[in-house]
Amino acid sequence: MDCEPESPSCCGSDLYIARQELAVDQTTAFAYHQRPGCLSRLTPPWENVTVEHSDQSIEVGSRVTLKTRIAGIPLRWKARHVWYDPPNGFADVQDSGPFAHWHHQHRFESLDHDRSCLVDSIEYRLPAGWIGRTLGGGKARRTIEAMFAYRHRITRDDLQLIADYPMQSKTIAVSGATGLVGDALCSMLTLLGHKVMKITRDETGDADEIAAWGKPEEMKKFEGVDAVVHLAGKPLVGKRWTPEIKEQIRESRVEKTRALCEGLAKLENKPSVFICASATGIYGDRGEEVLDEDSATGDSDDFLASVAKQWEDACSPAKEAGIRTVHTRFGIILSPDGGALEQMLLPAKVMGGKLGDGKQWWSWIALEDALGAIVHCIATPQVHGPVNFVSPEPIRNRDFARTLGRVLHRPALVPAPKFALRLALGEMADDLLLASFRVLPKQLQQSGYQFRFADLEDCLRFYLGKHRKPSQEVPA
């Protein structure tokens, strides 16, 4: 991203301009921004902002209301679109909110037949005149810079998927659509131009839903589906793993998956690909051993390994019916919106450190790569069977803690002893936090997937809005 220097306008406003080259043509870039959900997709996760109302349009007169907090005070930001000229651009202004003046113009410039440039131009003015500018000008500028660094990275990488995987618009059914991965996946797929149908556990689904475990006639809706992404399952974290909870974890994955696959196998027009979630826990605690998709799975007396093995076996009806089947063996998925990273932020901010001795290997993947790799699996016919969804660079837990602390400007000083974790979490502590998984993404790399984030520190800085200062840049 290339940002122009600040240039105050004649009315005392400040001007911020940011440019981002895109790997698609001008019309495709504009269409991405026009689709429902784009604003939510491009809102940085560290900003305390939610979309309260949206007309789901960028045409002139359409409105959006955001809820946010500034210094702990709740505030609504109301904006209205005032210019709409596809595929050249659109613009919005603030009707009420934190700024005395805000005018944001999005322009799309053609570079050649398959490349374009997004130019964001924001003219803004803080309240209280020169006092507001003196006291809050620097903070406002840094906030805007961080926000557009995030927005342009997401936009660039999402549109790169269109360039890398030039598919016709597909109909894709997704289960677990309210979860961390599922919710973000549905949003991304919609913005990439695909139709998403959410798989629900209700008796009957709406027009854009499929009640896969409801009334038998609901399965007929799969007749028009090109791909199924099955992510549903009872969360592993939360309650202690009592025998009852462990059975619920197993049933939600194994039995529900088998029933879904049996239904898909009976269809006259079957989806071309079935992608089912799995986990690196299938390998069991393996210490220093380097693992890939050809490695043996864990022992049957290991709870997570056993459940994951049964989970993958439950997909057999789909595979035997000729549906290309992919098992996405997820590592630790990183996003501040949920999952492990969200749980680790508070301890890290109070100087929390390694878990146990910290020697255990953690195989992680950025949420954005989890989404991109799913698109890769949908679009790449040669990908099938187990696929490790992890970054190419696993890291020891103690180094993970140090890296997170460095990004947050906090020392990772206070360890969490094994006995304390086991006392608090029971069996979950050993299987999820203390076990060692040194897993590599052999299948993704060999099939040509390009990772967005292979370096942990870059990933954390991106998600937490802690971009490197010029003096922090690492020489090439």
UniProtKB/TrEMBL annotation:
Residues 416-461 form the DUF1731 domain. SUPFAM superfamilies: Bet v1-like (SSF55961), NAD(P)-binding Rossmann-fold domains (SSF51735). Pfam families: DUF1731, Epimerase, Polyketide_cyc. The lineage of its organism: Bacteria, Pseudomonadati, Planctomycetota, Planctomycetia, Pirellulales. InterPro entries: COQ10_START, DUF1731, Epimerase_deHydtase, NAD(P)-bd_dom_sf, SDR39U1, START-like_dom_sf. It comes from the Bacteria. PANTHER family: EPIMERASE FAMILY PROTEIN SDR39U1 (PTHR11092:SF0), SUGAR NUCLEOTIDE EPIMERASE RELATED (PTHR11092). Belongs to the ribosome association toxin RatA family. Belongs to the NAD(P)-dependent epimerase/dehydratase family. SDR39U1 subfamily. This is TIGR01777 family oxidoreductase. It comes from Rhodopirellula halodulae. Residues 172-382 form the NAD-dependent epimerase/dehydratase domain. Residues 24-147 form the Coenzyme Q-binding protein COQ10 START domain.
